[in-house]
Amino acid sequence: MPRLRLRLTPHKSLTPEGFVWFIGATAALISVPLLSILGTAVFWALLPFLVAAIWGVWAALTRSWRDRDIYEEILLWDDLIRLERHEPRRATRDWEANPHWVRIALHQTGGPVPQYLTLQGGPREVELGAFLTPPERVGLKETLERALRDKSR
Question: How far is the C-alpha of 83 from the C-alpha of 71, rounded, in Å?
């Protein structure tokens, strides 16, 4: 049983209920101009484009939502730290090291994101929580440092 288990996930601001409301509101607002030409040949000519536009918004939001199904899991035992990164449409990537030799680095600048957080000490340096906000990465660094310090007691 690990001493520390953290599951890091990105924030999802659009709930399933919000998704339904957004698609419904989009369809309603796009349809309003068509009410003036209801029953005419022009209406039937424009209808496929309306349906395609609504489908495009639905497909883009669904794809974006699925792409946010990424998560990282950090497991810490007395003699092992393990990081697993789970991404949609990709194999799980993992990293392991002896916690005694692990260093946590928070790069203020120079990384792909502000407050770039990495773990060093295994076969390679790994990025941690790139989908988190900068304050969340700072908090994660403090949590991990505290957990690594406490293990030696």
Answer: 11
